[in-house]
Amino acid sequence: MPNLETARVAFGEVSRAYITHLAATPDLAKGLIAFRCPMAETYQLWVQTGEPMRNPYMGKRMLECGSKVDMIP
Which ranges in 1-73 belong to alpha helices (H)? Predict the structure, then answer.
């Protein structure tokens, strides 16, 4: 990736596709938690296998920024 912003955009698009697939196939989403980063400038959702939440969009400076959301793309 040329820079961090490009990587964030790419991650957002991968997350969008993955969450869309999980929402359409709920059995695959068992054990996963969806979160939303209000500060992400692109797609704001991601999934994790557990808690605590660790925001991948903002790196170490804001690991706890975000909230749980429904698994809806």
Answer: 4-24
pTM: 0.89
Query: What's the CA gap between 51 and 73, in Å, rounded?
Result: 20
Q: How is residue 7 written in tokens?
A: 């990587």
What percentage of the chain carries pLDDT values higher than 90?
Answer: 73
Looking up tokens 């939303």, which residue turns up?
Answer: 36
Show the tokens assigned to 2: 């040329």
Q: For 42-63, how does the pLDDT look when each residue is reduced to its tens digit (9 = 90+)?
A: 899 999 999 999 999 887 888 9
12 secondary structure, DSSP code: H
Q: Measured between alpha carbons, how far is 62 from 29 in angstroms, rounded to an integer?
A: 25
